[in-house]
Amino acid sequence: MLAHLAQPAPLMIARHRAETPSPWKRKREETCGCFCVTRNTFGETFNSCVKQNIYLNLRTKVSALKVSPSLVALVSHSGDGDLLFACSGTIFECQHQDNSDEFIATILTSATLLTGRSPSSNADIAPNIQVDVYLWDGKTCQGEISACDIHFNLALIKIRSNQRLPTPIFKHLDDSMTLTLPRVLDSTSYELHSQQDMLQGSNSFKICAGDKVIALGRHYLSHELMAAPGVFRFGYCDLDCEQLCIASCKITMGGIGGPLINRHGEVIGINFYSELFTPFLPINAVSKCLENLKNHGRVHQPWLGVKASSLGSASVYKLEKIILKFPQISKGVLVEEVTSESPAAYAGIRPDDIIVQCGGKSVGSSLEFFGFMLDKVGEPVELDVRRPSDGTCLTPTVFAGDRCNRWPIPKERQMLFDTIHM
């Protein structure tokens, strides 16, 4: 009998192992090529369920702490009191009211907070919505909806305070690069230099692929600060917005609407969610959207039907083809893809074309190009284009369409992402 107890049957051992979860595995993960995919919801923190976020170096912590006083958690409830969505946001403005001791702070966040529905539907702001705002010290405020643009997935929430609330430093991104080519093509060296003064002085932050960035969020239940380090990457996501950039940070849905910061603790974008990386809208585009809201009451949605990147991010294979035809070219925007029956296609633009000027102004990055087109929706804009395939120079005229972004979701993931908008 004692021998029987000391040596459990193999079937009993197998059943025990199957029923006992491993204490080391915090989250079910899947692989997709060389990537590791973690399934998350807004109820989970990305400090604990994403392995690379558990142990942060001191520099990452210091950068995150610079922004934490302006980082808030937001929770929306429907008219029936049901939880609609929970995400993060950043206080970007706090103004003193005349003849009053009161301050009004404006929070930048995601419009998902107000819709809580799939981007594939015609989402509207939920009726009788209530928004609770949790500050970094745990204090709760009642939020008021100030503005919302569903297509760029931006919302502004105002709160009232009896003291001035802290705001972070915001920086426009400058990802332009000037390619300085040698006079002799068989030279052994090429140089890449950051383009100077693309934006206004110190308002811009020059960034290159591989530069460290940090996605931040604040959990709606514990109110804890969440940080996910990563790097800035060139590339595209499957969300239908040409202004989006990507970072390798891994967050949960609770980080939607939170800030993306650089290594100095400056806010350079607003985060959204994808399984493999973090799409973010640069502050450049956010500023344009806020300007449109202020001046026109709505935000234009420019659509050209192109995927483009800065010339400096092109492969060495493509760069060689370019300089063989245009040895004097130094900067521009490389057209990667052109959607059929789009404004770009009707203008005769093709993949691998180089856009060097837009409306008579030189362009050195895709951010600069799309930022210019955001102000030209519905207007004819003449482009200066170089075509390496045959060595020709073109001046097509393009009309930037004004339409709604679709933000498509793979059908098999529709149920999982039913609360994501963007």
TrEMBL record:
Lineage: superkingdom: Eukaryota
Signal peptide (from-to): none
Coiled coil: none
Domain PDZ: 302-389
Protein's GO biological process: proteolysis
Gene Ontology MF: a single term: serine-type endopeptidase activity
Protein family per UniProt: Belongs to the peptidase S1C family.
Protein name (record): Protease Do-like 14
Natural source organism: Durio zibethinus
